[in-house]
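Internal ticket - ligand job 418, adenosine monophosphate:
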Amino acid sequence: MVEIRKPIQVAEAVERVMSHVQPLKTEILDLEHTYGRVLAEPIVAKHDVPPFDRSPYDGFAIRAIDSAGASGEERKSFNVVGEIGAGHVAHRPIEQGESFRIMTGALIPEQADAVVMLEQTVENDIGFTLRKPFEPGENISRQGEDAKQGEQLIEAGTLIHPGTIALLATFGYSQVRVAKKPVAGVLSTGTELLDVADELVPGKIRNSNGPMIHAQLTRMGIESKSYGMMEDNLDSCTEIVECALRETDVLITTGGVSVGDFDYLPAIYERLGAKVLFNKVAMRPGSVTTVAVLGDKLLFGLSGNPSACFTGFELFARPAILAMMGCTTPYMPRIQAILGEDFKKANPFTRFIRASWEMTSQGIVATPAGFNKSSAVSSIARGNCIIVLPSGTRGFEKGMVVDVLLLGMEQGVERWEL
Ligand code: AMP
Ligand code: MG
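stdout (structure tokens):
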């Protein structure tokens, strides 16, 4: 008898997965190896930035008061008494009518309180003249204007990107405490599957999900361990899933979660004693997406249909893996865009359409990326985003505003918002 499965809403499914995530331990890494990791400690300013008053330009450091009353008719003249390159300091304070030639990034000499840009001066025998008065503080990068010592600048749980690395380097964090990275196992199931290098034979198709999931993980900086392809056989599949669970932190399988005669994943979960969090989601594609938990490990049973498999990974596995690393912004960013073509079909379940977005003079337009069935593979290749149409809707027309999830973004958001 075919089991009747009760679909749950996508948000509820995401919530169930996320509430079963077990964060991994932390480790200390050299700064150069932290790109793509998640901060396990906040970044606190260890000193002011900039650490001293400095010149933002190449020019001359002066006392503003000496420029008072300057105009085109009455140019003020300054004596240049020395030069300060970046990394150097003035040998003495300046006095009335004096200036130092100063380079970008150099420390402002004592008594100076303004910088005149090179372009604002006219050279003369003793130095230069200028034609406008300067305010005290004009053209000076103030100590601490960027960050004040002791300030918490970035919270723990933030994904480290190149800008974060720059900030860590600024404060001398040569070693950084970050969350460990999970190792993900990937197993493709299906007797019909051929290896990528194999010639096609009747009834068989090449395994595209395995390499795709591997790449989805790589895009996140996550290492994957491939368990290859398995024929639909309960005993051997159970064995390999058990083995994969011993060797990895999270397991992603593709195929075998429907209710066909050879869909063995549900039976495998049962044999292993894994708790199934859901086995039907009110979404298209990927309604058969199944997630189970065994001990502290999540098992993502993605549909074998390529578009469903892709979408299931991005919606459920990706945020869960990021949350395992302590990331507090694990969800794909959502934007609104103008629908690029009619999509008249009814949406009994929440629909996720592989699409591509581009900026136009009308704003951001997202257009479905062609053949869009759950089994489609060409539209995944063409797409760079996912249009989301709510359940219970129909008749979307070109020009209407729709929600769009952005793929491949380094920075995520805190909440699942659909
Ligand atoms: P299943 O989820 O096992 O019922 O498979 C659903 C559909 O996806 C079937 O047409 C399969 O042949 C196809 N499929 C399953 N696994 C893969 C895979 N690894 N790569 C490409 N297509 C697959
Ligand atoms: Mg199958």
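Auto-summary: Residues 306-324 form the longest helix (19 residues). The chain has seven helices and 24 strands.
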